Amino acid sequence: MKNDIKEWDTHLISLIFDPIKAARILNTPLYPSVTEDRRLWSGERNGDYSVRSAYRLCVQELIDTSHLRVNGDWNLLWKIKAPPKVKNLIWRICRRCVSTRARLQDKGVNCPNLCALCNIEGEDSLHVFFKCPSSQNVWSMTSFFQVVSSVINNENEASAIVFQILRQLSKEDAALFACILWSIWKQRNNQIWNNVTDAQSFVFSRANNMLQEWNTVRNVAATPVSNQQPGAACIWRKPSAGHVKCNVDASFLPHNNKVGIGICIRDDQGAFILAKTEWFSPKSEVHTGEALGLLAALNWVHELNLGPVEFELDSKRVVDSFHSSKRDFTEFGVIVEHCKSIFSTYYRNSSVEFVRRQANEVAHKLAKAATLSASFQILVDIPNCIEHILINEML
Ligand SMILES: [Zn+2]
Known about the structure:
This protein is of the alpha/beta class. The protein has helices at 10-16, 19-26, 51-62, 74-78, 84-94, 101-106, 125-131, 133-140, 145-154, 158-168, 171-194, 200-228, 286-301, 316-323, 331-346, 361-370, 384-394; strands at 244-252, 259-266, 272-280, 309-313, 351-354, 377-379. A six-stranded mixed β-sheet has the order 5-4-1-2-3-6. Helix 5 crosses helix 11 (171-194). InterPro entries: RNase_H-like_dom_plant, RNase_H-like_EbsB-rel, RNaseH-like_sf, RNaseH_domain, RNaseH_sf, RVT-Znf. GO terms for molecular function: nucleic acid binding; RNA-DNA hybrid ribonuclease activity.
């Protein structure tokens, strides 16, 4: 690196390293905001070491877990609209880890082998949920008895049966099917642990009632929430009276080792004030480029003395980090800290908010154009590429 400025010493690097290594070094972006060297832990987003991430890394990288994978469409399972305890049981059936007597014996537990409900056959998942005469009776009370019967004749593994049946049932039936499995397991536990024999009709009605109650509670709970949360804006809105709005975006074109930055300022009538495009090279990670866009805007706009500014960008990660007090040791975190310090020094009654991409179209177009121009530009007149969007958004 050069001594006095933050730039790679191209000549020196090409003398010391072979061309491939030299190219990799020169393609590593250098950010003026980052002034201190640190060791970072790549397992966490904020660069800070945690036992949780180290454990996750060990499981992913070091331990071969392929033998533990169970084939099947797991999305079918997660989509079931049923209480979490029901989904948990279905997950355990599909992972083949329900504590049936057969499984307990496999694990060395000294317990009886026979099914507690019929006392005829060994108790494994296939038997207790599907083949046991008691469970068969429960299924016969349901409208999807036919589907269940045909699948259990062709499969001999409980997890495969569950996946097969879920594939064939409607959303409502899948939820009831899952609740019945749960109720059958409850019946089995009541028999073993409480010595209580639930009638088969009760097993069915318990599942039905539980599902209905859960749906009622969910509907009540969901109603006010859906009225309250409008979500981020999807169309561009004029800033409050007396404020200006500054939209910012970064662009990453394929086959172009540059990050383009587009910044556009408009007044409270939606009229164009100024725009700026700039770019830097080499390419950074997307969220880092977006943070650099915000930094460029914050650095530039305060010099213009326009009063309160509403900054908007479509990177949720940057906006969330900007408003977060969590420490982040990565280069991205340092750049966001730099943004915060400029914002708190120079801006009063201003804001930095997230908007959807559709509401940030002007900045997006400018950022794209930025990578194609030779130098940085301050645009006093409306550029052609955004004219029609500006007019539409003024209306
Ligand atoms: Zn049985």
